[in-house]
Write a structure and sequence with these properties.
It is a single chain. Helix 1 runs antiparallel to helix 2 and helix 2 packs antiparallel against helix 3. With 167 residues, the protein is mostly helical. It is built from 3 helices and no strands. The protein has a domain of 94 residues.
């Protein structure tokens, strides 16, 4: 994206990530959030959704860019709550719950990225070499194969005169 291009999130008429409400006044968001949306969410949305192939890649890209946005909001929430701590205080259970939420979002995003990677590998792999089949030889034989007597020893069940015993 060039410097003079309009970002999807703050474009009045342009493409906008579906998860960012149309009525949201982008310029009234905190500066850090605006910068993070422009630096992370918008480029990822453009690459993984707008430029993606239709189907699995685009769907996984939509999930990933949505999770980028949620992760960003979650991280800002954790940062805000940590900034409100007086110096010398320890993290509370509420802080750990917020951190755990961020990590769950991160895990979901990692799974979505793995799906994107597998879809890309599937589309770009080389086709297997053509298999040359032998001409049809008829149905397989149901007879047991005859084993050759390579040792020269007599393997018959007969006696010395060649007569067989009745069992």
């Amino acid at each position: 994206m060039t410097n003079n291009a309009v970002n999807p999130s703050d474009a009045p008429d342009g493409p906008r990530p579906y998860f960012i409400p149309a009525g949201m006044e982008f310029d009234k968001l905190p500066g850090e959030l605006q910068a993070a949306i422009r630096a992370v969410v918008n480029p990822n949305y453009e690459e993984m959704v707008l430029k993606a192939r239709p189907g699995v890649e685009r769907s996984a890209g939509m999930s990933t860019s949505f999770l980028d946005y949620l992760e960003l909001l979650c991280q800002m929430d954790v940062s805000q709550s940590l900034a409100e701590l007086p110096s010398g205080f320890h993290l509370s259970g509420e802080h750990f719950e917020k951190i755990a939420k961020c990590l769950r979002i991160k895990g979901a995003k990692d799974n979505s990225l793995k799906l994107l990677q597998r879809a890309h590998e599937f589309r770009t792999r080389r086709p297997p070499p053509a298999v040359v089949e032998a001409p049809w030889q008829g149905p397989p034989s149901t007879k047991r194969p005859v084993e050759p007597n390579l040792g020269g020893a007599d393997t018959s069940l007969g006696d010395e005169d060649g007569k067989t015993e009745d069992c």
